[in-house]
Structures are given as structure tokens and as C-alpha cells.
Amino acid sequence: MEAPPPLTAPDIVATVPDHQRILVVSSTAEDAEVFGVRDGLRRGAVVIAAPTAEAARVVRVLAVEPQVELLLAPVTVPDVDRGHRLDELVRRHALRDRFRDVVVVTDPASAALLLQVLAPGQVRSGGAVTVVGLPRGERPVAVRRAIASGLVLGIAASAVEPLVSILVLLGAVTFVGLGLLLVLRWRHVGRELLLAAAIAFGVVLAMVAGSARFPDGW
């Protein structure tokens, strides 16, 4: 796997929306450092931890249910490929959902090996917590939900009278969608609304054309 481009400080990663945060926490971290990690975690974060008492202490402070991984356990003499195997483990968890934080709790030696492969060009923070940013694409549009919403919106709009009210309703959805395109974090929602509005407009046209072709009384 290709390593991400180097980032020089954890605060850069925290403010870049097109990077997934990987927080590597040493099992020797002080409670104050762990509290800082906990307070900055986004909802839905996953924590993978070594099966040790030290890692369990850190996890208790994080107050997040961990996934214990045997590979993160400390070893006396590490294999030559240990860093790459740790990297593969972390990336496997990260790829399950590119829009959640991943916290890795392990011993200092394993953390150092992991960081050498995960982010070889990144400057270490100097503390027990290092934040790595993995590049990712934008959040995908929920196409099925957009189609369903567009059909419902189109059917509902077709029941509105007069015609100008339909245009106002669809125009409002389109306007909100265009506005959300300017906000990177909500851009996928904006695209979803625009798709739903386009589908709704097509449904309205189809229903109006059908009613004109088969008027009441036929």
C-alpha cells in the first residue's frame, strides 16, 4: 500500500476534511493526553487495542468499546515485516468506513514501527499521541435514498396547486442543494438534494403530461 503524503503536525490533520484521522496512542500515555484524544474524537470512532493491561487502562479513559487485536501485543524481538503487518491491520479497519476516526492503542515500540510504515515522512509530535492523515475521496452520494426521496417529493408536489407552488417547492430544494455544495463537509448532501429535485421534476412532468392526455371523463 502506498504511504500517505507527510503531514507536519496533528492539528493540520484535524482541520483537513479530505483526510481520515488515525490516532496512534502509546499505552504509556498519561491520562491527560488520553482525555485530549477522547474529547477530540468524532462520533463512531473505532478503537483497536493491544491485549495488555496498559492498553486496557488507556481504553477505559477513552470510554469507547475496543476491538482487541493480538497483533498489537508487544513482542520481544519483532519480525522484519512487523511494521507492514501493523500497517495492514490499521488500514483494514480504516477502509471499513473512511469517514470515522481510528484509534490504535499499543506499546511504544509497536507504535513506532507502525508509524514508520503508515506515515514515514511525518514529523512525530513528541508525545504519546501521534495523528496521521490518510487521504480519502469525498463522501459518496446515497443514490438510492435520493431516488426514493425524489419520487416521494415528485408525487407530493404533483398534488400541490397551483403550478407556481410546485416550482417554488422544487426551487427551494434545488437552492438548498446548491448552497450545500459550497460546504465541503455537506457537499454529498447537496448533490443528493439536487438529484432528488431533478427526479421530482421529472415525476411532476410525467404526471402532468399523463393527466393532460387522459383528462377526467374519458
Outline of the structure:
This protein has 8 helices and 5 strands. With 218 residues, the chain is an alpha/beta fold. The longest helix has 27 residues, at 187-213.
Could you explain the architecture of this structure?
The chain is of the alpha/beta class and 218 residues long. It has helices at residues 10-15, 31-40, 53-62, 82-95, 108-118, 143-158, 163-180, 187-213; strands at 19-26, 46-49, 66-68, 102-106, 129-135. Strand 2 (46-49), helix 3 and strand 3 form a beta-alpha-beta unit. Helix 4 packs across helix 5, helix 6 (143-158) crosses helix 8 (187-213) and helix 7 runs antiparallel to helix 8. The protein is elongated, with a radius of gyration of 25 Å. The N and C termini lie far apart (67 Å). The model is unreliable at 1-15 (pLDDT under 50). Keywords: Membrane, Transmembrane, Transmembrane helix.
Blueprint of the fold:
Elements lengths: L9 H6 L3 E8 L4 H10 L5 E4 L3 H10 L3 E3 L13 H14 L6 E5 L1 H11 L10 E7 L7 H16 L4 H18 L6 H27 L5
Parallel strand pairs: 1-4, 2-3, 2-4
Antiparallel strand pairs: 1-5
